[in-house]
Amino acid sequence: MVRLAKPGGAVAVAEPDTQHALCYPPNPAFDRICRIFAAAFSRNGADLAIGRRVPELFRQAGLADVEVESRTQMYPPGNSRRTVRLDLVRAMGPQIVRMGLASGQELDELDAAARPHLEDPLTVVMTGLLFLVWGRKPPEFAPVREEDDPQHHPRPRSLLRSDGQAGAPDSAGFG
Fold it and tell me: What is the pTM of this model?
């Protein structure tokens, strides 16, 4: 993205941070599904906390004036995003079973217990956080070298493509 921006131009992203989800009143089935989701997603190389890491990645890429805001992802009753965590776990079901995280029967039972709760208009559902990050490509662009950055934290494997460069993984890692 930085390479495509003109000097002085802006780069902006909206990146989810899926480490936290909640519902109120609490629901043990939903809590268990969230733990299963986190384990399966992480084993596939996904970074549940990538949203909060984007400002650092922008600075490492040489962007200036990096700013960040976060938004809570909450959706009204009837919106399919309220059950996105359940839908993802359902879609990853065969893989979750192969990983030994849960049986197919347990996944079906958890979904049956959590889905009506999340669809209830009286239930508050937060599906995650969304980080809005933007920065400017300086007129004299030079990326910050990791070894020169005092704020550097080693990149998790999930942030490296197969060619060893920073960025989105080459594939979603499912399958």
Answer: 0.73
| 46-103 pLDDT tens trace | 999 999 999 999 999 999 999 999 999 999 999 999 999 999 999 999 999 999 999 9
The CB-side HSE value for 52 (13 A sphere, CA atoms) comes to 10
Find the helix packing angle between 104-119 and 28-43, rounded to 10°. Answer: 120
CB 57 within 8 A of CB 131: no
**What is the C-alpha separation between 79 and 13, in angstroms, rounded?**
23
β partners of residue 90 = none
Rg over CA atoms, the chain: 19
Quick one: CA torsion of 53, 55, 56, 57, rounded to 10 degrees? 80
